[in-house]
Amino acid sequence: MESEKHIQIAVIGVGYLGRFHAQKYAAMEEVDLVGVVDVDRQQAEAVAEECSTSAYTDYTKILDHVDAVSIVVPTIYHHEVASRCLESGVDIMLEKPMTTSLQEADDLLKLAQHNKLILQVGHLERFNPAVLAMLPLLKNPLFIEAHRLSVFKNRGIDVDVILDLMIHDIDIILSIIDSPIKDIHTVGAPVITQLTDIANARIVFENGCTANITVSRISMDNMRRMRIFQPGKYLSVDFNKKEVMAIKLKQGSNAALPLPDISKHGFTDQDVLELELKEFITNVRDRKSPTVSGTEGRRALDVALRVIQQIHENQNKVAHLLDQGETFGFINGQ
Question: Is the pTM of this model over 0.85?
Answer without folding.
Answer: yes
